[in-house]
Write a structure and sequence with these properties.
Blueprint lengths: L1 H5 L3 H25 L4 E4 L10 H9 L4 E7 L2 E7 L5 E3 L5 E3 L11 E5 L3 E3 L4 E2 L5 H8 L3 E6 L5 E2 L13 E3 L4 E3 L3
Helix pairs in contact: 2-3
Length: 180
């Protein structure tokens, strides 16, 4: 999957990211219609990942409550940010909230989650750290949306008992609700 993402040309990636942004915004607007006090939790993408930066800016421009992950040891926490300038390189070089940002656990929220691959049952192949699975087992109150390109969607992925599946998958092609 990583190689496939790296093979995307700049124009291809830009087009996919713009379409993906539109779908992320659509799901967020729909979620907030039902949960107006909900928090939007979203990762800050790395260079070859499905891009979230336009979405993060869009969220902040609308004055929405936005929380971004920060890694502390083997655990992940979410911190509210009001500007992308509050992000600094953290674990594995991923941008995360600076130390001054207080960690918060939202009562409810939409969590946008990265992955190398997702399957049609909502299972996720992450990057091997288990941060999201550990966080979501302790905080099950989130509507979980996997963010990826369409070519990262598989028919079936192996899943372990500790893996937490997503409720939705958002790609540049559309939004797919996971059903039992």
């Amino acid at each position: 999957m990583r190689r496939q993402r790296e093979k995307l040309s700049v124009p291809e990636k830009t087009k996919k990211d713009e379409q993906l942004f539109q779908n992320m915004a659509l799901l967020t607007e729909e979620y907030l219609r039902k949960q107006p006090k909900g928090t939007v939790c979203c990762y800050v993408s790395l260079e070859n990942e499905a891009d979230t930066r336009q979405f993060l800016s869009w969220t902040l421009e609308r004055g929405l409550f936005l929380a971004v992950p920060r890694v502390r040891g083997r655990e992940m926490e979410f911190c509210k940010i009001v500007s992308l300038k509050a992000l600094v390189p953290g674990c594995h070089g991923i941008l995360e909230p600076e130390t001054a940002c207080a960690a918060e656990t939202p009562e409810q929220g939409l969590m946008l989650i990265p992955g190398l691959a997702f399957d049609r049952a909502g299972n996720r192949l992450g990057y091997g750290g288990g941060y999201y699975d550990r966080y979501l087992r302790k905080n099950p109150q989130f509507l979980k949306a996997g963010i990826s390109y369409e070519f990262q969607i598989m028919d079936r992925l192996p899943a372990e008992e500790w893996d937490v599946p997503v409720d939705w998958i958002v790609t540049e092609v559309g939004i797919c609700k996971i059903t039992d």
